[in-house]
Specification:
Number of helices: 3
Largest sheet: 2 strands, antiparallel
Helix content: 40-55%
Strand content: under 5%
Order of helices and strands: HEEHH
Shape: elongated
Strand order of the largest sheet: 1-2
Bound molecules: zinc ion
Number of strands: 2
Oligomer: single chain
Length: about 120
């Protein structure tokens, strides 16, 4: 009887649909507004140097042209850029070691101690 064979097809199709349709059904359109923004991390700024100081480059994180593409773009715009070392010219300790001292002085002014050694 051929109609029996036909009758099984919708069943197979619907189970396939169930398998694949499952994940898509959960996909609600653009309704993730209520996601809470991460608020912590700013707290320890004053006590620990995490957050303010870039240990790696010896520059305040917010000004570090090596860590922040946004900062880097701003320096490039000003024409303050070292192509050779891929960082702001005014932050290139490789070209001008005196700059390192300039930033170190800011660290000392804030924390009253020497900045951590730069890992480069
Ligand atoms: Zn950095
Ligand atoms: Zn340089």
């Amino acid at each position: 009887m051929s109609f029996v064979r036909i009758a099984t097809i919708p069943l197979a199709v619907s189970s396939v649909f169930l398998l694949f349709g499952c994940g898509q059904g959960e996909n609600k359109p653009e309704q993730t507004k209520d996601k809470p923004a991460p608020t912590a991390a700013a707290k320890s700024d004053e006590t620990k140097h995490a957050g303010w100081w870039c240990d790696e480059h010896g520059i305040p994180e917010a000004e570090c042209s090596m860590c922040s593409p946004k900062v880097a773009a701003a320096f490039k715009k000003k024409g303050d850029w070292c192509d050779k070392h891929d960082r702001a010219k005014s932050q290139c300790f490789l070209c001008d070691p005196k700059l390192k001292e300039k930033y170190a002085a800011r660290y000392r002014a804030k924390y009253g101690k020497e900045p951590p050694p730069i890992e480069e």
